[in-house]
Amino acid sequence: MTRPWASSWGEAELWKDPRDGFIPTEGAKALLGHLHLVAQEGFPLALVVGPAGVGKTLTCRYWAREHEAPWVRAQPSYSPAALLEDLAVELRITRTKTFRVLLSMVRDALLMSPRVIFVDEAQLLDRPTLETVKYLADETGSSFVLITSEEFEGQIRRHRDIESRIGTVARIGPISLQETQAIYKDSGYSPEVLAEVHTLTGGILRDIVRLMRQMDRVVEWSGERGLTKAAFTPAHVRRVASRLNLAGGCAVKRYFFDFAGQKIPIRRDEATEFYEVDEEGNINRKPLVMLLGDGSWVLEGREFYLNRLGKRVRYEVVHVEYEVELHQPRGLYGQLRRRALVKAVPDWQEIDVAVKEALREQD
């Protein structure tokens, strides 16, 4: 049996898959491997996590279509009854308004034929709906793949009984510059132009496709004036990008105080996120704490205390960066939030007290 995730795609084939815009990037191929593992091992739950626009849904839909897997998408105020009704449609079961009867029908159908089931926008599942998912997974041997953005991962995994059933967590992120250039190497644009596209989009695949499509339209409209793909420059890319809302790249990019020769207006009341750094410089992806309110005191070298699990810990700010948004092509910049990297440092006051107590005991 030839598996789609095990095939060796050539670089020239990467962007030529016509099925609903699915592009088998390296991240997508890794995600397909995780989904194969879910089907092989029969994990009760699996989690697919990544920023918006990187191809989570398209990749999972591709796998679901190839394997005829049921697909449901959670909606606001999504209830257990709504989940069962959507599953009944996918499983071709006659729906009934009686919850217990519908639950039994869905359970029996999955019990006869366990399968992988996808739940998109899983952050919208409340606790009772998650309990229904857990019940169906436990009773039928089916696997539920929960798809969500990375900022909602903790919201799902905070429940111990849910976390213990998650067999694998597949993470998919932005694509690299090299992969962007490989995907579009036959597009007619120069490597410098493609590099600018990657910079402006931050490697977010949805933004790349949107920006490239808009660039193609500009070339088509400007053909009579001699603007061809070969003549396209990074400046042309920036001009086209200024008309779009690109969530992953230069439209939302992190800088220090100086940006494009201008001073960023630092507002005192923006949110400040603190991330812990270990001795080797590795950054913990999960924020240590978030400060709402005046964060003007957050400066490099500043030390402060936090109470963690009942213990008073001293931290030092080692790096500060500001997320800014480009509002207009002419350059009006506004700060969105402040990020601070911190490391735990010895509390010399506590050490001094401990040493004095030790010396006192010796005497």
Written account of the structure:
Helix content is 37%, strand content 21%. The protein is flat. It contains twelve helices and 13 strands. By secondary structure, it is α/β, with parallel strands linked by helices. Strands 6, 9, 10, 11, 12 and 13 form a six-stranded mixed β-sheet that branches. A five-stranded parallel β-sheet has the order 2-3-4-1-5, sandwiched between helices. The N terminus is likely disordered. The longest helix is centred in the middle third of the chain and has 17 residues.
Rounded mean pLDDT is: 80
Main sheet: strands, sense, barrel: 6 strands, mixed
Which residue ranges are poorly predicted, with pLDDT under 50 across at least 5 consecutive positions? 1-19, 249-266, 325-335
**How much of the sequence is in beta strands?**
15-25%
Share of helical residues: 25-40%
Q: Measured on Cα atoms, how large is the radius of gyration?
A: 25 Å
Which structural class is indicated by helix and strand composition?
alpha/beta
- Written as H for each helix and E for each strand, in order along the chain, the element string is HEHEHHEHEHHEHHHHEEEEEEEEH
Distance between the termini: 78 Å
* Apparent shape: flat
Number of helical stretches of at least 4 residues? 12
Overall number of strands: 13
